[in-house]
User: Fold this.
Amino acid sequence: MYSLTKYARSLNDISLTDNTVTLGLKLTEFTESPLTESGRDSGRMKVMLSSPASGIIRINCWVRYTGRDETKIINTRPSATGIVEQSDDDIIFKSGTLEAKISKNGTFFRIIFSYCGIPITATALNAFFNTQRPSEYTGACFDITPGESCFGLGGGGSVDIIGHKEITDNSNESAAFNKVPFFVSSRGYGIFVNSIGAVKFDIASQSGSIAFSQEGESIEFYVFAGNNPAEVIGSYVNLVGRDDSFESLTEGLSLNYNGSFDFTDESIISEIEQANGLGLTISELWLGNGYLPKNSRSGYSWDLERFPDPGRFIRRIHDKGIKLGISVSPYISDANPEYLECVDNDFLVKNTDGSILLSEYELGSMAIVDVTNQSARNWLGLRIDTILNTGVDLVEADFRYELLNTGDRSIAFYNSFGVTFNGVVKDCASRCIGSDRDSIIKNCTGAGDQTSPFRNIYMNKNTASYSSLACAVNNALSYGMSGYGIVNMDVPSIASSSPTLYTRWFQTAMLMPHFRLPVPFCKDGEMLENLKLASNIRTGLLAYIESCCMESVTYGIPAVRPLQLEFMNDKLASKCSNQYMLGSSVMICPAMSGSGNISFYVPAGKWTNFLTREVVQGPRILSRKVEMREIPIYIRPNSIITSHTGETITFSCFELTDGKVAAAEVLGTGKASSGVVNVLKSGNQINVKTDGFGRASKRVILMGIGNVVGVSEGFPESDGYGTTIEFNSNELVITLG
Assistant:
């Protein structure tokens, strides 16, 4: 059967009601051959433009209405903000500063999108189409300009997705690279296809356009616009839902026992005491599924042989100032006591023939609780509640698609299963741990799953490599540009990597919002000293990292972001895939080679090495050898990095720009905003103003400035790096010589 495409052509009907534009379009069919164009009119398409919120335009298209679409991720309210204007020639639909313009008289149907009056993209010649291959597909095609970059579509081994073909079919994806139907362009617009089904994307792989389509005779997608991609991502996250709080940031080391069943309560306590004796501070302990009975490795009760008194064990952990995390999953072994209950109540995922889906593993067979079943979901929630109510502080939603990848199920089932399970875990954590402390790490995700913070970045293979480290960094960046603003990075085991690679990996992971170090961890030699140094560096940046995460949960902006998000007009910044920005002020350049030889790009301005205080003038590309103890961290000019030392708050100011305010926010107890600092250098005078700190002891460090001749309070102390001044008032005036 040949493939046939029906293109939307000319308008034959226009209806304006309730802030909504509804269009009737003639379809003209063509065979997919460059030599044949039948041009025969065939059918009709209905297109509706509406707006659920300012700055967002929703577009619905139907070739034939075949019933309610059950694959939508979100259901938004009717259009409330759209404004319609029309003339003899055009229809203009406006939502805030975003507008869609449609010509009434054109030969080919097009929608031109503009932001603040400036065109940003447009639907191309084959704007909406319906294809028989042999199933029906409906989709759209958008123009792309030379030099444009696109980001998103979920996890990926590269950041810029121009030239990629992707499909949001997570049944065929590794769990570490889940796909979502959202992308954002460097031109300041983004597109979200509202479907949990398989959406096909072709991001200019063979033409100068972006095409996407889904099976069926309808499609719904949203167009966002903003001054930059960060605003677009924020608008998208606000639409689909986001978490407005986060709890854990790994203040010391976070140890992960996941996959191990050889430890006991006493061996864990001994491990912690040994780490303390080595000068390491443990702040989090993740048992993974290792708290479960060794003979089933699934279920919802502690292994009482290795943990005779779970409550006492947890209290001992808490007494050491350590938070305890576990993983929960929908898997259930046939050796588990609850298995028969699930069978009798029809709670388990089944094959298409009605039999229970069972996957063989070394201890028997494993089934999956069907979280798409409301009764099964309620049952599972009660079991998870029981575990969390023992005093657990943190939780990991451990579901991966591998066990589900048998049988003939719809793509929508696969794509929604992990998201639904994450929602169950989130609800349980909110009830049992607290809605303001319910941080979870999730191993699988999907569109609309931004309501809990830490998307896990981990390896799928048993052997680590520098290539997989680079892939992990790019994966974190790609998820950030897809709306997952805060990530956790798991360090692979020592056994799967060399000492050098292991060191480079934990150095990189410890400069992510959250990280976990596998047990056993390094306990002697050079690796131990490098681990201590990396931990100290993280401690020095922790207040800053915390503010980056708060910015993410408040506005949707990723804490870990590609350089291009901060330097949109810098063409070289778009080519830097193996370095990243942590917030807006800190640039991380991981060493990704055994030799330590690296090359990285420094954008315009004077950047300061956080460890050595070396100042580098950009823009330029630097090549250098990085010793094992070194972590290339550079501070952006005119930045303030805050830190806490006891009761004193320190504001470290880097390369202050004359006449331009530098500002920073410091978070207080419970992640509430506790204060703001503004620093302005004007000629030979620097004004430091603080608000919200009361009379707390404060310290300002002026990096690279040693010519202080007068201060309104305190005593300046200079060294080779700059000048330090302690003060208590809300304003400090500094005079330079």
Remarks:
- The domain at 253-333+373-554 is CATH 3.20.20.80 (TIM Barrel).
- The two ends are 83 Å apart (CA to CA).
- The longest strand covers residues 118-132.
- The longest helix spans residues 525-555.
